[in-house]
Amino acid sequence: MTLAAARRVAVPGIVIGILALILTSLAGLIGNPSAFFRAYLVGYTFWLGLGLGSLGVVLVQFLTSGNWGLATRRIFEAGAATLPLMALLFVPLLFGLPQLYVWARPEAVAGGAVLQPKPTYPNVRICMGRAKVLLVVW
């Protein structure tokens, strides 16, 4: 198969896959937003963990300056290169904070005796600031 023939098959397949992903995500979001955001958080955490783990392995390889990681270095560098995409994919979680966490709902915080004495750590503004700092540092 030539490169041109492969592109004729691959490009429509990628477009169809992206459209299907968007449509099923919208259906899940409209049908049950709470379950959608919980599932999204699990998937996001999984893929972010792979990128961060790859970054850690690459950093250890460069830190030790050994030849032991030459065979896998490019693979882990590619895994770590997904972190900017993961920063972008964090944005939908910001919209789902009230569905995911009780402390992101002002009415629940106002009525709950457990959350009222802790206004600093479980806070939407502080959570977004922490996420921005961590994603930039990573």
Please characterize this protein's 3D structure:
The protein has helices at residues 3-31, 33-64, 73-80, 83-88, 91-95, 97-100, 106-111, 124-137. With 138 residues, the protein is mainly α.
Q: What characterizes the major β-sheet?
A: none
- Using the CA coordinates, give the radius of gyration: 20 Å
Strand content: under 5%
Helix and strand pattern? HHHHHHHH
Q: How many strand segments?
A: 0
Number of helical regions: 8
Global shape: flat
Structural class: mainly alpha
In short:
With 138 residues, the chain is mainly α.
Keywords:
138 residues, 75% helix
Layout of helices and strands:
Blueprint: H1 3-31, H2 33-64, H3 73-80, H4 83-88, H5 91-95, H6 97-100, H7 106-111, H8 124-137
Helix pairs in contact: 1-2, 2-3
